Amino acid sequence: MTLAPTDPAAPGDTGTRSVAAPPALPERTKSKLLEVIKACDCATAQTLADKLGVTVPAIRRHLQDLQDAGQLEVRTEKPGGRGRPQHVYVLTEAGEATFPKAYAALCLDVLSHVEQLFGEGAVMQVMDARRLELCTQLTPLLGQHTDLGHKLHALARALCEHGYAARAYQEGSQWYLAQRNCPAPAVAKHFPQLCQGELTLYRELLGVPVSRESRLSCGAAECRYKVG
């Protein structure tokens, strides 16, 4: 790369000048960058720099930051299937997750329509089907353990993978399971069958009495279950 000639040194100037780094994108612009990539058919560094009105070196730095965060990946593609291959940036699953999703609202709408069309019993049938599927998935996992504490910790780890922020702990000799997050609070508030299905699921998986002491959907800080 050829640098432009420097200006003559001013009186008292040593003649040494530093080359300024390309301007950085504001942090909020990284969100805009993700939006542009999502909407762009061929998100090359040059294309993105043009759309955001910044230099290519600046855009590359922020693309690398987003790659390091696991929100982007680079693919080598030919535009329109022809021409020279180009490095194209695409969103990863983590990148897609930064965009608002209306899953809870959709689920609430679907269950409301099911209830209106087929009655409350139909909603319970849907919840039962979900419970049976989860039970089938988790039974082999918990079946690896015979100790209640080990089973509870295994269940808590599985629930964390589903977004429940769960933990298993003891107070004295009593075991508890706590969930600090509800993946679908609006659904749980309108359809308590969801919470009842979870309680039934935990009883089936653990093979011991389980009782709920608090619920997030009722304003508590966590869903807390007394186990055993």
UniProtKB/TrEMBL annotation:
<dbReference type="InterPro" id="IPR036388">
    <property type="entry name" value="WH-like_DNA-bd_sf"/>
</dbReference>
<feature type="domain" description="Winged helix DNA-binding">
    <location>
        <begin position="33"/>
        <end position="107"/>
    </location>
</feature>
<dbReference type="InterPro" id="IPR036390">
    <property type="entry name" value="WH_DNA-bd_sf"/>
</dbReference>
<dbReference type="InterPro" id="IPR011991">
    <property type="entry name" value="ArsR-like_HTH"/>
</dbReference>
<dbReference type="InterPro" id="IPR027395">
    <property type="entry name" value="WH_DNA-bd_dom"/>
</dbReference>
<feature type="region of interest" description="Disordered">
    <location>
        <begin position="1"/>
        <end position="25"/>
    </location>
</feature>
<protein>
    <submittedName>
        <fullName>Transcriptional regulator</fullName>
    </submittedName>
</protein>
<dbReference type="Pfam" id="PF13601">
    <property type="entry name" value="HTH_34"/>
</dbReference>
